[in-house]
């Protein structure tokens, strides 16, 4: 679970950076393309021909196209439709998608993991539910599209590697994941992008950080961590970003945060982790 905790801390900075410095100022399609292209450049040198079976490459590219490519298109556009608190509110359903999709792929149902995910959703709602604007339905649907893509990608990656007879070194194949995302991001920018590029070194620096750090290193470690924990723990960790992101806002940007609600919600998330960790199942089920 250390991988997931580390990436949560890494990603906790990304949310505010996008909302404060990029959303509405830099074209969303260009931002997505830049992040994915940079991540691809980081991981392509590690590809090893020995492990690149055509079927495995195709599956990894499909997962990358979904979890990173399509998800980012939904995610960035949600900031144009919703306030940052509303985006945070609507991401709390991801744990439920993770548990249900994993059980569907494994042809089973584990109620305890669903209850754990629901407890994590409750904790996230306590932390971040601040009320909603009047016109939020489209924004809600866009964020759910992002949530579903993110859940499908990470669960699909977890199940794909679990079913491999000979486990490939993940570093030797993960570049295919970014290539799949690039297949989505490049034509999307060419067809729909606007000439709205970064206008400051700060914005370019943020895109560089998001591409190499948050997208490149972050998604590799997150998906690697997903293969090492239960589906219940994976589901819950999807909402750990909310308290982490709020703490970053509070510390670095001085945003107002209700510390009581943050504490109560955090305790509920810890309780949900305890519920799932007590299961005597395999660590990567």
UniProtKB/TrEMBL annotation:
Keywords annotated in UniProt: Cell membrane, Membrane, Repeat, Transmembrane, Transmembrane helix, Transport
Subcellular location: Cell membrane
Bilayer topology annotation: Multi-pass membrane protein
Cellular component terms (Gene Ontology): plasma membrane
All copies of domain EamA, residue ranges: 3-127, 138-275
Family matches, as InterPro entries: CO/AA/NH_transpt (IPR004779), Diverse_Substrate_Transporter (IPR051258), EamA_dom (IPR000620), EmrE-like (IPR037185)
Presence of keyword Protein biosynthesis: no
Lineage: superkingdom: Bacteria
Higher taxonomy: Bacteria, Pseudomonadati, Pseudomonadota, Gammaproteobacteria, Aeromonadales
Keyword DNA repair: no
Transmembrane annotation, as ranges: 29-47, 56-75, 87-105, 112-129, 135-159, 171-192, 204-222, 234-253, 259-276
Source organism of the structure: Aeromonas lusitana
Record's protein name: EamA family transporter
Any Pfam family the entry gives: EamA
């Amino acid at each position: 679970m250390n991988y997931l905790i580390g990436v949560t801390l890494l990603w906790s900075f990304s949310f505010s950076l996008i909302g404060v410095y990029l959303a509405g100022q830099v074209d969303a399609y260009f931002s997505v393309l830049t992040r994915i292209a940079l991540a691809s450049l980081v991981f392509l040198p590690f590809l090893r021909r020995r492990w690149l079976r055509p079927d495995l490459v195709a599956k990894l590219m499909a997962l990358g196209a979904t979890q990173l490519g399509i998800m980012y298109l939904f995610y960035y556009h949600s900031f144009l439709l919703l306030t940052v608190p509303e985006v945070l509110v609507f991401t709390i359903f991801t744990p439920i998608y993770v548990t249900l999709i994993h059980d569907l792929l494994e042809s089973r149902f584990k109620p305890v993991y669903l209850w754990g995910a629901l407890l994590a959703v409750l904790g996230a709602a306590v932390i971040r539910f601040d009320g909603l604007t009047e016109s939020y339905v489209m924004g809600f649907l866009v964020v759910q599209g992002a949530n579903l893509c993110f859940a499908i990608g990470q669960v699909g990656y977890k199940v794909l590697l679990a079913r491999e007879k000979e486990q490939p070194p993940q570093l030797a194949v993960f570049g295919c994941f970014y290539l799949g995302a690039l297949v989505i991001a490049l034509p999307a920018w060419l067809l729909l992008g606007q000439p709205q590029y970064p206008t400051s070194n700060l914005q370019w620096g943020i895109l560089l950080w998001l591409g190499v750090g948050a997208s490149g290193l972050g998604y590799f470690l997150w998906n690697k961590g997903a293969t090492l924990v239960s589906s219940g723990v994976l589901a819950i960790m999807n909402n750990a970003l909310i308290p982490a992101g709020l703490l970053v806002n509070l510390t670095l940007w001085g945003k107002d945060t209700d510390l009581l609600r943050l504490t109560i919600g955090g305790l509920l998330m810890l309780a949900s982790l305890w519920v799932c960790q007590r299961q005597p199942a395999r660590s990567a089920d």
